Amino acid sequence: MAPSDKDASRSLELDLVGFKGARVAPFPITLSPMLASPCKAPFSNADWISEPKMDGIRGIAFVKAGQTKLHSRRGLNLTSQYPVLSDALASLCPVDMVLDGEIIALDNAGRPSFQHLQQRMNLMKEADVERAEKSVPVFYFVFDILYAGNVSLLSVPLRERKLILKTILGSHPQIQILQHFDSDAELAYESCINLGFEGIVEKRLDSLYESGRRSPSWLKIKAQQTDEFVIGGFTAGQGSRGTTFGALLLGQYNETGEFIYCGSVGTGFDERLLNQTMRKMLPLHISKCPFKKRPDEKKQVVWIKPEIVIEAKFMDWTRDRHLRTPVFLRFRDDKDPAEVRPQQEEKTLIAARIEQDESIKSQIKQSAQTIIDGDEIKKVLDQLSAKEETFELLVANEKVKLTHLNRPFWPATELAPAITKRDYLIFLTKLSPFILPQLHNRPLTVIRATSGVHKKQFYQKHWSYSLPEFVDAVVVEPEDAAQEAVEHVVCNNLAALLYFAQHSVIEFHCMPARLELIPDLEHLESCDSRYLLNYPDYIVFDLDLHKDGRGARNPSIEKDESKRLCEVALKLRALLDSMSLQARVKTSGRTGLHITVPIIRNLEFDIARNMAELIGRFLTAQNQDTVTQAALVAKSSGKIFIDHSPNARGKTVACAYTPRATADAAVSTPVTWDELESISPATYTVHNLIARLTDTGDIWADFYRQKRDLQLLLNSISRK
User: Fold this and answer.
1) Residue pLDDT, tens place only, 662-682
2) Is the domain of 539 the same as that of 684?
């Protein structure tokens, strides 16, 4: 170091020791990174900041005397694998430094991709590294500074460390300071997920750097629940997997160092991964089970030394601490097997969430009162009465661009005039006090008819448009872990309802589960959709004549057929009454009826679905001449089909008050049991429903105040 450089370094050291907690200390040879504790949901607090959680590998950079050494989380030397980063860091640092950050690679869309980074990992030959740098360049995002010169900053609060880092680190295309969010962690989380990051890390501004410790002062919130596990064995493969394996047996180390079985994972592998995994495992074969307790249910197992670390995503933990629906994500060669331990949420996290959860609960309690604004409805109707075919509609300070307002959505029939997009928007605006409470906080699938119901219709789960801020969306994990998660839209306000209408949504189908803690899920510690959507708040029986008639074609329903349908519905009601289950009924708007039982959310979908199926079997057994649970039998015999399949996680059913994409513009309408025999499934339509509602009001307004406890019913059955 030249004399002038030494002078500058001494001057910087004198400046730094003025910071609270800074102290002169020998430059370290190695240093373990501080780790973040898991947290279920983001929360906003003025004393915390949020950073994007990068999908890469942790890198501690030691820059001394113009030379850089890059260490992994485990302390492995990565310098030769990423020479461009090492050289760039050496040129950027005006003094000796220790930096903490993440090494990442980007996919073709410019998003962080661990899969792309894996192409760079473990390359040792200089020629291989040079080739890889051209095809898969890497980047180092710095988020902390731990030493500067001979001054340790470990005990300096994060707020000041961030300031020091920004002041003294230079810039380079592949070396960047990770930007953070000062407020609104929820918005930060959503933005990071949309940009392809894993989630966010929330950090206390006064936090010190706790080397080697998983601290509650840093909290990581991921879009999906993941963890690291060590492979302890594998089961024999069958069929197409006969030459590889069926499932990997996974474990983690407890506090006393015992290797505990956590479950098995058999999904998430393609043929390349299957073969790669086998090549890794075969040299590690041992004869003795490495787990403290041998998994009882596992047979034909090959045991291996617990040296391979993988990462898996999963739905949740079971009560006996086994993984629920895990999916393999990737190998984690950067993780030390001995350090793979259960990631327990710190007790302090619950306390940190109390104030926010209380606010959420208060907002939810008020939602039913604030969801509809009568004055706003009048303002919207006044705007829709204008003659323009294209204009910007103002809805509660939100703007919805409307086009092609004179386009027919439903063509004219012999009995009714055509319904244009403008007519439909007016109808939905008047209907909003009735349909929005049914849609509120429920993930949706929709049926769209961009050229009208008489032409092509299509069913849509994922909304490909860039959504406006007033339209919510949620990622829903399917029951089958092998399937991809799907982002569903949510319709929680009038602006969103009319936005969907502008985009030709005719039918709204919602899940029988809500994204709310209140009521009856207060025991959950998070508003995370992965948990809330496990619990249905009603069970539904779809009674249908199963007559042919797709799209806008309306199969005719004879009086005797409608009568048979009603008779079966009344028998089902009597059966449910005998079980102390109070049922509601609505028309499907096509050829059936939906019998619905509101329930307390204390059972998961698989139990509720099994119970619905058993009730259907009992009804079928008592009415074998008129009822069937087989769709093909119903089509061929004319029997009434009782369908329990909508009672499954991720499934949807036509919402109460949703229009249907049929020629007569029918609407799925709640009705009373007394009037059931005087109507047909398609009695109420876009043409006449508002007049009915003006007369009767919302007969389902108390729907959720009539919930029944299926758990009590099951307990009483088991005692008998």
Assistant:
1) 999 999 999 999 999 888 888
2) yes
